[in-house]
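Sequence design from tokenized structure. All designs in this work follow the same two-part layout: the structure record, then the generated sequence. An example of the structure record is given first.
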């Protein structure tokens, strides 16, 4: 039987999903774990505003960089990424000291968050932990653009894929009706070629969203064959690329928008005509 972790007095470490962007996207349980933390090991893309939930905790930056994100503190030149072995050691050290530790990860801890290595390190040290889920970037991108990842009768499957392997090789295929690619923003043109080679039609809808969940998020529409056109727009920003059914705009939304604009234009025209008619009437009945 698989053991299911539940919160309790024996839990020393909580892996918390910070969500994809701004602080209010964290879950209620995630916020509660931060409020009781003594030590927070945080990723570089977690919103600095989350510090307000644990002002007395010790915050330790263990982020990996390479994007234009948020800065928690001034950094000197030559700042390097924190190695995974160092992160594992810090988790074990602070948990064994008796501190309540939160490992704060951007998005959801279980989605491309290197959670496996950290769980293994804690298990080897006999340390109890829990995982608090969060909103992952693909869901934030879908919400921001109002493009459901599943569609009745058309989009029955979703794949969350990292385009980059551990060795830095770009790999892309076709695994679902809708596929969201993480960590491909720096190689959009190459991703386009790989997608076409793996069976995606060049005219398949594609959506590129960078900094999903932040106030400065940017979204752009493309086809698979023209993904390279988005390179400059999203340069240096954490980017999610959604391909397939879930990248297509909802037709009803466009139709509603067009109808609303037409109705507004009609109402404006009617009001203008009424004013004009009233003005002519006033002129015709005026006295010297």
């Amino acid at each position: 039987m698989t053991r299911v972790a539940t919160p309790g007095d024996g839990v020393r470490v909580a892996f918390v999903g910070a969500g994809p962007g701004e602080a209010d996207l964290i879950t209620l349980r995630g916020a509660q774990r931060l409020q009781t933390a003594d030590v927070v090991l945080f990723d570089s893309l977690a919103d600095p505003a989350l510090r307000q939930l644990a002002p007395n905790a010790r915050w330790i930056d263990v982020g990996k960089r390479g994007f234009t994100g948020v800065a928690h503190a001034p950094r000197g030149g030559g700042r390097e990424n924190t190695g995974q072995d160092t992160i594992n050691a810090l988790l074990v050290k602070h948990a064994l000291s008796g501190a309540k530790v939160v490992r704060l990860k951007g998005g959801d801890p279980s989605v491309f968050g290197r959670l496996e290595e950290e769980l293994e390190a804690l298990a080897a040290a006999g340390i109890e932990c829990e995982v608090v889920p969060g909103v992952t970037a693909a869901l934030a991108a879908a919400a921001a653009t109002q493009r459901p990842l599943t569609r009745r009768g058309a989009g029955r499957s979703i794949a969350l894929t990292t385009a980059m392997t551990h060795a830095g090789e770009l790999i892309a295929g076709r695994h679902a009706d809708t596929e969201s690619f993480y960590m491909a923003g720096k190689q959009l043109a190459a991703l386009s070629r790989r997608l076409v080679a793996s069976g995606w039609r060049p005219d398949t809808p594609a959506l590129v969203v960078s900094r999903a969940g932040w106030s400065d998020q940017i979204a752009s529409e493309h086809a698979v064959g023209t993904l390279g056109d988005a390179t400059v727009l999203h340069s240096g920003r954490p980017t999610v690329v959604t391909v397939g059914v879930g990248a297509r705009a909802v037709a009803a939304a466009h139709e509603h928008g067009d109808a609303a604009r037409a109705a507004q234009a009609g109402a404006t025209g009617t009001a203008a005509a009424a004013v004009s008619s009233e003005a002519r009437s006033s002129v015709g009945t005026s006295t010297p």
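Residues 67-79, 270-288 have pLDDT under 50 and may be disordered. We note this feature because it recurs in several other targets discussed in the main text.
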